[in-house]
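Here is a typical protein record:
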Amino acid sequence: MGSMGKLWLLALVVLFSTLSLLLSANAKQTYIVHMNHNSKPQTHATQRDWYQSLTSSSDSILYTYTTAFHGFAAYLDPEEAESLRKKDAVLNVFEDRIYSVQTTQIEQAAGDVIVAVLDTGVWPESKSFDDTGLPEIPKRWKGKCISARDFDGKRHCNKKLIGARYFQRAHNKNVYASKDVASPRDYDGHGTHCASTIAGSPVANVSFFGYGKGTARGVAIRARVAIYKICWSQGCHGADILAGVEGYFRCGKPAPYHEDPTAIAAFSAIQYGIFVSCAAGNSGPIKSTVSNVAPWIMSVGAGSIDRDFPAYILLGNKQLFKGVSLYTGPRMGNKLVGLVYNKGKNSSSNFCLDGTLEPALVRGKVVICDIGIIGYEEKGLVVRKAGGVGMIQVNFLAVKEMSAHSHLLPTVEVGYKIGNLIKSYEMTDPNPTVILGFDGTAVNVWPSPMVASFSSRGPSLVTPQILKPDVIAPGVSILAAWSEAVSPSQLEEDKRITKFNIISGTSMACPHASGIVALLKAAYPTWSPSAIKSAIMTSAYNVDNTNSPLRDLAKGASSNPWAYGSGHVDPKKALSPGLIYDISKEDYSKFFCSLHYPHDIIVTFMSHLKLNISCSNKFSDLGDLNYPSFSVLFKNKTSIQYSRELTNVGPVNSMYEVTVTAPSSVQVTVEPAKMVFKKVGEKQRYTVTFNNKKNKEAAVGAVFGWIVWSNAQYKVSSPVAFTWT
C-alpha cells in the first residue's frame, strides 16, 4: 500500500453477479491462488520469484498480488491447479469467475479525499469531471494516469480525475476476438455514471432528452476520482478485479469469507483505513439474495426518490392508468389502436422474445410484454420488428413500477396490479384498444422513498447473525454522466448519444452512500471505517415523506430491515450521529476465531493488525460483534444476550435513554437503560437480553424491532431482526 495508505482513500466496490464459465474439463483457465506470504523461502528474492517457481511456466502468471490480497493469478490447466492446492503454503485456489455490473467512496472540504472507482472506465470529457476551483492534487498521491490510443493521461486527467488505469490480462486470456480497446476509456457507461454520482462536479441545465432537467452533481463534489477499469464487453474477470484492488476494488456474491477473494481484500483495505461499500445486489424481492455481506463492508440496497417520469395508458373502456417511461421518440397521437397479449407462436410470447410474436396478430397494435429473459428496451425492438406500434411492459415482481427505461418504441411500464387489470381487459373485451401518453418529469412524488423491488433482500446466508443489507440509498431512475461511446440503452440498434443518462440499480445506490462516506471522512479524518458506517446506519430513517413506515415496491405494503437494513441514508444526520459503534481489531479477531476457520487462514486475514492470534477468546455468538444493528437467531435457544459498546462523538455531559420496540413474541431487556457520557470519546457498554416467548410449534418466520438510544438532540437507532429457523 505504501504512501497510498496515508491518503484519505475510499474504495468504491460495485456489485457483480457471477456468470458461469463454459469450459471443457481439461481446458486451461485463469485461477487465483491465495498464498501464505509469510512462508516464502529465503532462497527467493521476491514473492514473484517464489510464485513463478510454483508453476510450470513463468509465462502462465498474469498478476502477482502483494497488498490487499497475497498470491497470484495464473493461466493453468486443472491438474496444475489441483497440484497447487496440495502445497502447504497455498491457502486456497479459486477458479476465476466472470462478473457483470449490476445496473440495476471524503471531503476536506473533500479536496484531500480520493474515491477509487473500479468499474467500466471513464468518459473523461464529461463536464462532471471538470476541475474548476479545486486545489492542487495532494502531494501524497502516487497513483497513475495511463495513456492509451484513445486516452491521453496528461490531457484527460486533471485535479478532479487524478488517476486512470486499466487491467485486462485475464480478460485477454479467456476472451477471443475481443473488440475491446485497451484503455481507461468507458465504452459501457456504467463506470462514468457511478463515478459522477459519487463525486461529479456540478453541471447545470442537463437532462436525458428533456427528462429530469436540472443540475447534475455528485454527493461529494470536491472529492477526487481515481478510475480503475476492470470490466470489459464480456464482463469482469476476478483476476483483473484483484489487480484493480492492488492498485483498488469490487464486490461479489456471498461465499464463506475465507473463500471469497473480495472479502479478504476488503478486510485488508479497512485495516489501512479504507472504507469499502458495495451494492447489495439486484436479485430482489427474493429472500436471502443479498450480496457483499461481510461486516466490514457496507452493503447498500436501493430506494426510489421523490421524482418519477409519468406515462399514461388510456383503454378503450375509458379506464386510465399511470405508469412510467423515458421514451424520447415521436408520440402515438390521439387515435386508439388495438391491444394484444400473448399472441404469438409459442407459450413464451408473453415475454416478447425474438421470433415469438406473430406479425399478423401484432401489426399496428400495442403489445403487452412481461419483463424477464431479455432487456427492457430489447423487447421493444422485438415488438417493432413484428409490426407493433407500442408496448406496455408489466413488472410481475412489483406492485408498482418506478424504474423507467429509455425505450425506442412508445412504451409505458407498470407493476403487476395495473398490469393484471389491463390483461383482463384485453382478454375479455371483444375489441380491446388503447392509447399511450407521456408526461415528462414529476417531482414531489409521494410516498417516497420506497424500497426498489429489484433490491436484494436479507437475511445473509453466510453469517445470518449480521443483519444485511446495511442501508438503502437512491437507486431508482438516477440521472448522471454517461459515456458518449455507447447509446443510453446499450443496444447497437439505438443510435442516440447522450452526455447524461437515467438508469436504476443498487450500483446507483452504492455511489450515493459512498459520497456520504466521503463527506464523513473529510469531517472526521481519524474515524475508522466501522465508525463511519455506524454513523450512516444509526442516523438512517425508516419513514417516508407521508410519515408512514417505508414501503416496498414489490408488494406495496410496509417493508422491513431485511429489505432496507437500518433505513434510508440521511447525509445531514450522519454528520452528527451523537454516538457510534466502533469495532476494534480485537473484536474482529474474536469474530474470525468464532467462524472456526483454519488458524493459518485467520492469521493471514489479520496479518496487517499485528496481533498475536491464539483464538483463546471467541464470541459465544457471532451476533456479539459490536455491530450497529442486531440479528437474533434463536434456533433452539430460549434466551440470547449480546453486549455492545457506544462511543460518544457528541457533546460532553450527554445523557441517553433507551427505547425498545419489540414484537409480542420476544421480551427485550437493556441494561443499563440510561447512560451519561461526561467526555467526548468516552466509551460505555450495555447488554441486551432477548427472551424467546414463542412455543416450538409457532417458532417460524421473522419479526422485527428497534433499540434506540436518544435524547433531545440525537436519536441512535438500531434495527433488530428475530428469526427461529
User: Anything to note?
Assistant: The longest strand covers residues 639-648. DSSP finds 16 helices and 38 strands in the chain. Residues 1-25, 102-110 have pLDDT under 50 and may be disordered.
